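Q: Okay, next protein. This is Metal-dependent hydrolase from Streptomyces cirratus. I've checked the sequence twice, so it should be correct. Can you predict the 3D structure?
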Amino acid sequence: MSADPSPRAVEVRRSARRRRTVSAYREGERTVVLIPARMSEAEEKRWVGVMLDKLAAQETKRTLGDAELTERAERLSEQYFGSRARPRSVRWVTNQNTRWGSCTPAEGSIRLSHRLQGMPEYVVDYVLLHELAHLLVPGHGARFWQLLEAYPKTERARGYLEGVVAAERLPAPTAPAPAIPSSVPAARDE
């Protein structure tokens, strides 16, 4: 697998005045993580990962419009398929509740489920690439999966989506029975 195509530099800034909080923000092409000076290297590494995930989640929640989704698909096609997959339209839809995306190769149209909105970028990118691959290869045969091998986060994204589906199938948690306050005497059989 190859590295992330657009890694950002991470700068960790330690502060003696900072006691317990950790924060992060984007500064151009760099991510700055602010941590307490006393933090160990292991804690630093863990918190950098946590903060990068939080920033990515915040950025993904900014919903892409259909025009941005189309631009993203074109960029992904260029990067992974040499611009061979050329969709005529890419848009969000609200009528796909059992699929993450769909493609009509004859029309060159790609539709992504609104349920993907707010998921990490790499997951949306994977679903876009999956549908773009269908513009080149119908079905899910060996040639189709070969195309998707170029995307380094294919397995991670598939695992994420499988987890979402599994979580949706879990029964809703039941509320525990209310505790009896200690100031109220328990009933006694006489």
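A: Here is a summary of the prediction. Residues 1-6, 182-190 have pLDDT under 50 and may be disordered. Residues 31 and 157 are 23 Å apart (CA to CA).
Q: Noted. On to the next one.
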